[in-house]
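Table 4 source record.
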Amino acid sequence: MSQEANADFSEEEKDILQEIMNIAFGNATADLAEVIDIYVMLSVPNIKAIAIGALPEYLRKTINEDVESSIVEQKFWGNFKGSGLLVFPSGSGKDILAFLDNKEVKDYNGDASATLEKSGLLEIGNILIGACVGKVSELLNTFVTYSPPQVIQNEKNEFNHLIEHFDPQQSAIVMKTIFTFKEKNINGFLLILTNHESIGWLRKALNDFMDSYE
């Protein structure tokens, strides 16, 4: 059985969702640039429907269980409901911390260094996920609330806990873009997962969005 689930999106709906995500991801990186003055390059967003039961395996393959990484997760609720995942390669925290400290690398050690790096990742995750999800909500005329972001250290990528609020018999929409922090050559990606409850609303909102431009 294919891991992709039929969410009944037309090609036109997929195209407009991709364009909305392109705008949202761009908005998120613009917000980040205002905070830490860093240029972020983005790939074209990839959008697919995946059966919830297959989602942990998709995440394991996408994030790569053989490469250590840090993941910032933030859940959101409303008509548009799901999780944002921002994935960084291990060691990115120090480079990000340098930007947050106005590019001045300070000599922190041990627990102090780990705490500061975690804070830096949380700040970047909060900006990128919040700005991206917030822009989607704005464009589709709704609003969301957020949980506080949290940093998950990659330990064999057991992702089942990330989908606890998803019905395992249903499907999710996965929206993914790859980003590069040009000045530090940091590569990572941002995933927005929205569950089956949101799909019906999302299809209607996309059609309303298209109708507003006709």
